[in-house]
Amino acid sequence: MPLQMQISCDVWVFYLLWFACFWEFFSHVVLLICNYVATKYIMRAPEAEMKALVMVCSQKSEVISLAVLPRLPALGDPGLLTIGFLMIYLPMLIIDGFIAYYWAKAYDHRIKSEKETKPY
Question: How far is CA 12 from CA 9, 17, 29, 53, 112, in A?
């Protein structure tokens, strides 16, 4: 009987872990959008500072989740649960990589078009 309870508890923790991973992803996307709108339209920061603020401020969701995780004793071993949060951190970095690549490509295109229009 205790084995069945352990298995059902592990399944519950597994589903909770996946929910936490999707929540991390969702919160990261929401933070990206909010930070972009705040820095570009409300603060009207220069382009370089805007990009830096958006990327740095959006990565705070991983730090917050890892700070809260040890304070939830009913979930089990925090070291094992951290693996789930680290699993979702890689897609966050990939998303941010695509955004940085797009911004770099747009910047290069703008610089190239400025060089073509300015006669030397």
Answer: 5, 8, 26, 37, 54
What is the gyration radius of the CA atoms in the chain, in angstroms?
21
For 40-87, the pLDDT digits (tens) are: 999 998 988 888 888 888 777 667 777 777 776 666 677 777 777 777
Q: Could you give the dihedral angle defined by the CA atoms of residues 54, 78, 70 and 53, in that order, rounded to the nearest 10 degrees?
A: -10
Tokens of residue 42, six digits: 């409300």
- Per 3-state DSSP, the chain is made up of helix, strand and coil in percentages (nearest 5) of 90, 0, 10
Classify residue 75 by its DSSP letter.
G
The tokens describing 40, both together, are 């570009």
pTM score, two decimals?
0.65
Cβ atoms of 23 and 42 within 8 Å: the answer is no
Tell me the C-alpha distance between 38 and 26, whole Å: 18
Query: Half-sphere exposure (CA, 13 Å, Cβ side) for 64?
Result: 11
